């Protein structure tokens, strides 16, 4: 495990989110991973922050609300296309994504959520703010194209407590 500055992996992480996604992982009774394509790395309240956007119908959503912790694992040497597609289409309500589907849960250093062992870059986060998007404040174009069902994403602002690389 090699600690890195949270700014160092930013370009790589955003590029992965734009092209295939990264894994958002939660703990609780049963660890779960879901693919995310939206996320923001920045600075707020004097802390490094990773913001993830999760729709309320995701299994991950309830666990995030309950545990207040998450990790983000970024594919580095292997693209993990099949695993990202699986974690982005199957729900942890129906299937254990860490049991025989190509993903390995490894304990994180600081939080109860696991990291994905097949990934080489990880962020460990503790939630500072949970904020639902407000359709009334949204551009009509964004509202029309993304939220016909009004199932607005919830934003989870997580303090980046740890950022590191692992050997894959
Ligand atoms: C490339 C990709 C990116 C995605 N990005 C997001 C995202 O940012 N937020 C979200 O709520 N769902 C996103 N999804 C959908 C979830 O990953 C998907 O609904 C998943 O099955 C939810 O898993 P869960 O029910 O176990 O939480 C994405 C799916 C894919 C394939």
Structure in a nutshell:
By secondary structure, this protein is of the alpha+beta class. The chain has helices spanning 10-18, 59-67, 81-87, 140-146; strands at 2-3, 22-26, 32-36, 39-44, 47-54, 69-74, 105-107, 114-116, 121-132, 154-165. 19% of the residues lie in helices and 37% in strands.
Which second-level CATH architecture applies?
Roll
* CATH fold descriptor: Pnp Oxidase, Chain A
How would a crystallographer describe the biggest sheet?
8 strands, antiparallel
- The H-level CATH homologous superfamily, spelled out, is Electron Transport, Fmn-binding Protein, Chain A
Q: What is the count of structural domains? A: 1
Helix-strand sequence:
EHEEEEHEHEEEHE
Secondary-structure content class: alpha+beta
Q: Alpha-carbon distance between the termini? A: 10 Å
Oligomer: single chain
Could you list the spans in which at least 5 consecutive residues all have pLDDT below 50? Answer: none
Average predicted local confidence, pLDDT: 97
Strand element count: 10
**Judging from the principal axes of the Cα atoms, what is the shape?**
globular
Question: Tally the helices: what do you get?
Answer: 4
Strand content: 35-45%
Helix content, binned percent: 10-25%
CATH class: Mainly Beta
Structure ligands: flavin mononucleotide
* Rg computed from alpha carbons, rounded to a whole number of angstroms: 15 Å
Textual characterization of the structure:
The chain has about 170 residues and is an alpha+beta fold. It has a single domain (about 1-165), classed as Roll (Pnp Oxidase, Chain A). About 20% of the residues lie in helices and about 35% in strands. The chain is built from 4 helices and 10 strands. Strands 1, 2, 3, 4, 5, 6, 9 and 10 form an 8-stranded antiparallel β-sheet that branches. A hairpin with a 2-residue loop joins strand 4 (about 40-45) and strand 5 (about 45-55). It starts with a strand and ends with a strand. The model has no long low-confidence stretch (mean pLDDT about 95).
